[in-house]
Design a protein that fits this description.
The protein is of the alpha+beta class. The protein contains two helices and four strands; from the N terminus they run βαβαββ.
């Protein structure tokens, strides 16, 4: 019997530039949206996102990333979404800039 690992909260240990991927989360390429959505559904996760682009343009991480064409987002620490059970799935770059991905068990949302 193949038992899947259910992802749970883990400490967020960011790399030197502030990026992170949950240790139990598979790595998905940008062209794997369907596989990513299937994995979230199999995990029973709700997700939401924070975008560095939506931060005030005076935020130090916004200035460093967008204003100075940097790659360091270690000064970016958005507040978790309202409600219980949210944990960090990833802090990653995209063609629209950095995203912080939050997840929680679907039953925590109810």
């Amino acid at each position: 019997m193949n038992v899947k690992k259910i992802i749970e909260w883990a400490p967020v240990v960011r790399d030197a530039e502030g990026w992170y991927r949950h240790p139990d989360m598979p790595e998905f390429d940008e062209d794997q949206e369907e596989e990513y959505r299937a994995w979230l559904a199999a995990q029973g996760l709700d997700t939401t996102y924070s975008s560095l682009e939506s931060e005030d343009d005076t935020h130090p991480a916004h200035i460093a990333y967008f204003g100075q064409a940097g790659t360091d987002v270690s000064d970016w620490n958005p507040a978790p979404p309202a409600g219980d059970g949210w944990f960090t799935l990833s802090i990653h770059d995209s063609e629209d800039g950095p995203y912080w991905v939050w997840g929680r068990r679907e039953q925590a949302a109810q």
